[in-house]
Write a structure and sequence with these properties.
This protein has about 1100 residues and is α+β, with helices and mostly antiparallel strands. β39 (about 945-955) and β40 form a beta hairpin.
Length: about 1100
Amino acid sequence: MDDWYGFDDFDKCVRVREVTTDFDLYEFRAHLGVNGKELDFTLDTGSQVTIITEQSSRDLKLDLVKPSKYLVGADGTQLNVIGESEVELSNKNKSVDCLASIMRGSRRNLLGIVEIHGLHLLHVVNSLACCFFVFDPFTEFAELFQGLGTMPDIFSIALKPDTKPYKIFSPRPIPIGLRDQAKQEINKMLELDVIRPVDVPTEWCFGLTIAFKADGKIRMCVDLTMLNRGVQRELYPLPRVSDMLSQLSTGQLFTKLDANSGFWQIILEEESQLLTTFLTPWGRFCYNRMPFGISSAPEFFQKSMEKILHGLEGVICMMDDILIFGKNSKEHWKRVRLALERIRDSGMTLKKEKCQFGMTEVKFLGHLVSVQGIKPDPDKVTAIMALTPPTCKREARSLMGMVNYLNKFSKKLAEISGPIYAVTGASDFVWGPDQDAAFLLIKHEISKAPVLCAFNVHCKHRVSADSSRQALGAVLLQLNADDEWQPVEFASRKLTDAETRYAMIELEALGITWACEKFDFYLVGRVFEVETDHKPLITLLGEKDLSLLPLRVQRFKMRLMRYQFQIFHTPGRCMYIADYLSRPSANGFLDSDFVECRSVERFVAACVNEILPDSTQEEEIIRAISKDSDCLDLITYIQSEWPEDISSLSSEMKRLFKVRDHLTTYGDVVLYNRRLFIPKSLRSKYLELCHDGHQGSVKCQRRARQVFWWPGCSSDIEEFVNKCNTCIKFRKYKHQPLSEPTLPSGPWVELGSDILDFKGQLYLLIVDYYTRWIDVRRLYSLSSSEVIKELSSIFSVFGVPKVLRSDNAGCYTSNIFKDFAVTWGFHQTFSSPRYPQSNGMAEKAVGTFKSLCYKSKDIHAALLAYRAAPMAEGFSPGELMFGRALRTPLGEPRSIYVDYEEFERIAVSLKERQFQKWNKKHNAKYLPELTKGQLVWVKAPTDVGQKGIVQMKDKHPQSYWVLVGDSLVRRNRKHLFVLQPDQDDSDSEDGILPLQLDSWEDNGNDGNAFDGSLLTPSVAPNANNSSDLHADLDNQALQEFLDVNVPNIVDLENNPSALHTNDQATPSPSIDDEFAENPNEGIEELNEGASSNNFELQDQETVSKYGRKRKPKRDKMYEYYE
C-alpha cells in the first residue's frame, strides 16, 4: 500500500490557520502566511515545488526573477512559469523559506511536498483505517456557519436590593491612531444589532477601552466591574469534569464544535439593556445582546446550551465548546447530524474555522481524548519537566521550599530530596550525581498523582503567579477535602526581549494575566482567587479606575476583564511553587506569547504617539533625559530593581520612589501611567506650554494630566499660574474673612453715614450700629455745610456719637467737616476707597430705606413700622434706642423691660453663626501682608487697573498706600494683586485702561476739600519728575510730598494715624457687608399692595458734585463715594 498522507496535529493547525477539506475532490487546503500576508494553498503531495498564481504574486507585490527550471504537469505538458521569487511561508510557530514558481493560467496556489513537511502539515502513517464522510457539514448546514445567530433564551440582569448606581461622565481616551478601527468595530456591532445608541438619561454608565487580538485586530472592552458587584447570580451548577470524561471511554471518532461569539447570540432583556450603557467618543451605547464580562453570564449560557442539546447521546458541552463522539464512524456521523440539526433549529451559529470534524484525537477539558483513551494534557507538567537543576544555594533553597510545600501530598518527596537538602546546609555549594538523581525523581513525583490532582469544578481554585527578571511562573491550585491547596497544573515561560525591560509592577501584572490565560479553560465563568507577592497590584487590578493605571498594566487589566477573581497579597517567601517556576530555566515563550507582547507594545506606542506626535519633541525629551543623572538612574531602577535603602537617594528620587508602581519606560522615555515624565531642564518650558492661552490653574492641571507629569506637577502649575502677571491683572477678587462680631458699648455710640440718591433727590442717612435705628434727612446739595447742617439737627435730638463712619466723599473729608468733628467731639473713620463694604451697616440701611420708599405710600409711616418691628434678637430698634416700645397705629405699646445684656448676647451669637456661614460659603481667606516696594496691580471693580508700588500700610486694617504713576493712592488689600517683577508682560498691556484717579472737589466755600483715597502732587516726588511705575519713594520724598498735599501731617510712615487726626481704625468688612453687594434687598414688605407710583417724593433737578445741573436718574445711586 502506498503511503497515506493525513493531518498532523489537526487540532493545533486549525486553531491558528484556516485548514479546510473539499469533500468532493478530497483536497486539503491551508491558510498560510506569505511574507507576512495571508494566502490560501492547496496541499499537493505530488508536487516537488510550490506554485503561486500570477494574480496572487501581484497582490503580494513579489519581486520576480527569471525561472531557473522548466516545470511540467502530470500529463507531461509544460507549464507557463513567468518567474520565481524567494518567499517565507509560515504556519503558526513554524516557518520555511522556499523558491516559489509564479505560474500564469493557474487558478490555485499549490503547496509542494517539501514545504508541507517543513510546516508539519501532514505526516506519514503505515496503516489506514476506513474513514469516510457521510455528508458535507459545511454544505448541508451552510447556514450554521453564517452570521450571528439568536438563541431562544432571554438573559436578564438581576441586581441586589442595596446596589448603588455607578456612572462616568467623560469617555476614556482612545489613541488617535486607533480611533478609526474603534469606530469601525462600533459600526460592526451596530450592524449585528449587538449594541444600540442611547439617548435617554441613565443611572449606569461605564467606560470603554480597546484591546488587541492575536491577529492584530482590536476588541472593544467595557469595564463592568462596578455592575458585577451588585449582580445577583443564579449559581447554576456546572457539570463535573470527571463525569463528562467518563462518557468518552468508548469514543473512536470526535467532532468539536465552537459557537460563534456565543454570548452575543443571547438576547438581553429590554429592562436590563440600559444597565450596560457605556460611553464612547461617539456617544453612549448599550447592549442588545448578552455582553462579555457580566459575572452571571457564563452560568446562564451553560444552562442554555444544555437545554438545546438535552437528550442527545454522545454529545457533551462545556460553555461554548461542544464535543460529539461515537464508537464507530456511522454512529459518530449520525450523532453529528442530529447535533447540527438541533443547533440549527435553536437559531445558534458556529465558528467555521474552529470546528473540527472526524478527529481521532482532540484536547478537551484539559485532557487529550483519543482512541487510545484519556490521558492528562502533557502541557500541565511541561513547566516542571523543563526545570534545570539549581546553580546556587538560593535556587536550591527555593526548590526545597516547593518540595516542603508539596510534601503533604506525597511522603516520597521527603525521602528522595535528602541529597539536595544536604547541599543547602553545606558551607560550599557542590552539586553532584546524587543531587541530579534526586532532582529527576522530584520532577517525576511532582508530575503525577497524588501530588497533581484532577480539576474539580465544585472546589475552590487559586492562581498563584510570580515573576522574575528572566521568567514567569504559575500554578493552578485546588482546595481539597483536607483544606489543603493542591496543584492542578504548572506553567512557566521565559520573558521576551521587550518584557525584560518592563517595570517590576508590569512584570507582576503580566505574570497574573498570563497565568489566567494559561488556565483559561478552568477559570472562565468561575470565581477564583489570585495571590501575588506584589501588594500594589491589589489596588491596580482591583478597584482602581482603568484610566489611572500605567499603560501596560491597563492592557493587562483589559485582558483580565473576562475573569471574576479576588486578588490578595501573600509574602513572596510563602509562594514556593510559583517562585521556583519563575527561574531562568523556564520554558521558552511561544509565538502566541510573542504576539501578545507585540500587541501590548502596539497599544503603548499608540498612546505615546498621541501625546508625542512630533518626533522633534520626543528627541528633545530624550536629549534632556540623557543629560540628567537623576533620569538615567530612574530608568535603571525601573528596568532593574529599586535600592532597598533609599536614604542615599536625592530628594527628587525619593519622591519618585513613592510612585514607583506607576512608572515605566517606553524606548528612551519615562511614563507615569499614560503621561510623559519631564526632566527638570524642560519643566519651565512645559509650564509655559500648558499655560498657553492663560487658562486657570484647574484647567492647566487638567491639560497636564493628559500629557505630562513630574513630582509636584500640580502644585508647580498652580504656583506658575498664580504668579502669571497677565492672569493677575484679570483675576477676580477673593473674599476676605469677615471681622469678628462686636457691638458698640451702647445705643448711639457708633453711627454709620451715607448719602443716597432716590428718584433724583439726595438724602443723608444715619444708622446706629447698636440699635439699627435709621434716620434720613433731605439734602439740597453735596456740600459739607449742607451735610453738617443736617447732622447738627440729628445730633441735637439724639445726642453726639463717639464715632461716625463714612466713605471718602468730599463732604466728609473736607477741612470744614474735620473742624465740625473736633468742635462736636466725635471721631471719624473712613471705609477703604472703592470698598464700601467696610461701612456695611450704612450700605445695608440704604437698601432698607429704598425698599421702604418703593413699597410705601407714606415713607414716615414706613419708617415708624420699621423702627417698631422686633428684630431677630427680640427687640425693635425703637425699644433699644429709648428703652421703651414705640406707640404705633396698631395700638398701645407693650410694656417691656429692655435687657441690654441679653440683647448683646443674642446679637453676638447670631453674628457669629452668620460669620462662620459666610466665610465657609465664600471660602474666605486672609490675604498675605504686603511689604514696602512690592510691585502690585491696582484694580477696582469698575477698572482694569495698572501697576503700582506699595509704599506703606495704612492705619486702617487691610489698607495700603500705593504709588500709581505720579499719584499716591490708598487702596484696600482686596484690590491689590502682587506682580512678579521678573516677568516680561509688556505684550499684555495693550488696551489696559488706567485708573480714574481724579479726586473729588468740593464746590462749596468751605475751604480745601481732600479725598483721603488719592494724593496727586503738583511736583513728582522723585527728582526726575518721572512717572515710572517701578520708582520708589524714600522716606524724605514721601514726607515732603505729604507735607505739601496734606496739611498738619507729620511722619506718616512712623505715625500713620496722623493722616486723619480724628480717625479711628476702620474695621474689616462686617457681616453687614454682604448686603452691600445686594442693596435692593430690604426688610420684609410691611405695606403689601402699596404702589410706588403713588410715592409722594417728586423728581427734581439737583446740583451735581461738580456744580452742574443734572437730570435725575431713576433708581441710580451716584458713586460719589468712589
